[in-house]
Write a structure and sequence with these properties.
Strand content: 5-15%
Helix content: 55-70%
Strand order of the largest sheet: 1-2
Structural class: mainly alpha
Order of helices and strands: HHHEEHH
Low-confidence stretches: none
Number of strands: 2
Largest sheet: 2 strands, antiparallel
Radius of gyration: 20 Å
Number of helices: 5
CATH superfamily: Winged helix-like DNA-binding domain superfamily/Winged helix DNA-binding domain
CATH architecture: Orthogonal Bundle
CATH class: Mainly Alpha
CATH topology: Arc Repressor Mutant, subunit A
């Protein structure tokens, strides 16, 4: 897994990573997700964080938790027929948001350079 070692992921981050991996077929139908305790230790987060991520995935219809056994990927054809499409759609949305964030950062840099070249900052115009 490609996690940022400098910043522990949130439950939302963990769920997003597994949605992407499930949609890409990294975890095929019936396969178990990593054990919550081991994953929490690996990521440097609390057990509740991983459990919350797995709960989000279950609410999306992508996985099912089995008491004492683990969390397993569901077959979207047997359960929620749109689960795989949801995972793929969420992955596409995440990629789109990342692209927009990059563009926004680039635009912000351009504005700052233009303002510096003009000799005024954003607060000068508001006075």
């Amino acid at each position: 897994m490609d996690w940022n070692p400098e910043k522990p992921p949130s439950a939302k981050d963990i769920a997003a990573k597994f949605r992407k991996d499930i949609g890409a077929g990294v975890y095929p139908t019936g396969s178990p997700l990593p054990g919550a305790k081991g994953l929490a230790k690996q990521l440097g987060v609390g057990l509740m964080t991983v459990q919350s991520a797995y709960k989000q995935l279950a609410e999306d219809g992508l996985v099912v938790g089995r008491q004492g056994s683990g969390t397993y990927v569901l077959d979207p054809k047997k359960g929620d027929p749109t689960a795989r499409e949801t995972a793929l759609g969420l992955r596409d949305l995440q990629e789109h948001v990342a692209h927009l964030t990059s563009q926004l950062s680039e635009l912000q840099g351009r504005v700052e350079r233009l303002e510096a070249a003009r000799g005024s900052g954003p607060s000068d115009e508001n006075q």
